[in-house]
Amino acid sequence: MTAPAEDGRDRLAERFERHRGRLRAVAHRMLGSSAEAEDAVQETWLRLHRTGDDGIENLAAWLTTVLSRVCLDMLRSRAARHEEPARDVLFPDGPGGGDPEDEVLLVDSVGRALLVVLDRLGPAERVAFVLHDLFAVPFEEIAPVVGRTAATTKKLASRARRKVHGEPVVPAADLARQRDVVDAFLAAARGGDIDGLLAVLAPDVVRRADPAALPPGVPAEVRGADAVVRETAVLGRRARHAQPALLDGAVGAVIAPRGRLLAALVPTIEHDRITAYEVIADPSRLRALDVAVLDPVGAGAPP
């Protein structure tokens, strides 16, 4: 016969498993890493296992609060990352070309640009934004997690929201046309569509790139549509990691495998064609870019 204590543990584990999917989703967006998300969920389970569920009226809310505190601690304790310069961005023959399946699902569901922007938020900003804007958790429940009042937490999320969405520097109609051009360029690059590339590139287009984006011997500047198209056919191997984004208020693209920013493509668009584009891969230049998402995110968030 099963001991009562063991029955209690099994029941507790069953209750926890009903919430695991949502907890993983919250942790993914807070941490941007499936491995770290799993660690946070496991730590949440251990804390529930130690305390039991006696006296917990709303287990979902309790688990979300505990998980959020775990994630906040992890975000705060991350050592300052001195990332290696992005190499081989245009010609990716080295490691890092493939995403683990769970990372692909995360990136596809959240969006590369949003993950890049979330990485640029402060820990408390990120927690407040993710909980409220992406999971509709009330500010009154978020406030104890970040150690602020509900009113201050609301301001924290509002500040994060402004960073996420950015401030376009062109009218909405121009922004939409820029988006169409960048979408067409990326689609053609992904498919190796030479005619599609020639249609979106100006005949005298100029490609410039940081040395960190290129293998040795490749020039930092290439001129002419034919030469750029030949090179872009190789870029297509990494184009699947690219997503349109708002860069310094205009439409460009981020190249972000697993949601980690390796490079940014900054185009100059005239008469619905790309007359020039620059591939920024130098870490200091990437940090200086104002990156934001193009499309609205979240549900039920206040304007």
UniProtKB/TrEMBL annotation:
One of its GO terms (molecular function) is DNA binding. InterPro entries: ECF_Sigma-70_Domain, NTF2-like_dom_sf, RNA_pol_sigma-70_dom, RNA_pol_sigma70_r2, RNA_pol_sigma70_r4_t2, RNA_pol_sigma_r2, RNA_pol_sigma_r3/r4-like, WH-like_DNA-bd_sf. Gene3D superfamilies: 1.10.1740.10, 3.10.450.50, Winged helix-like DNA-binding domain superfamily/Winged helix DNA-binding domain. Transmembrane segments: none annotated. GO terms for biological process: DNA-templated transcription initiation. The keyword Transcription regulation applies. Residues 113-163 form the RNA polymerase sigma factor 70 region 4 type domain. The keyword Transcription applies. Residues 16-79 form the RNA polymerase sigma-70 region domain. Keywords: Sigma factor, Transcription, Transcription regulation. Belongs to the sigma-70 factor family. ECF subfamily. Interacts transiently with the RNA polymerase catalytic core formed by RpoA, RpoB, RpoC and RpoZ (2 alpha, 1 beta, 1 beta' and 1 omega subunit) to form the RNA polymerase holoenzyme that can initiate transcription. This is RNA polymerase sigma 70. It comes from Streptomyces caatingaensis.
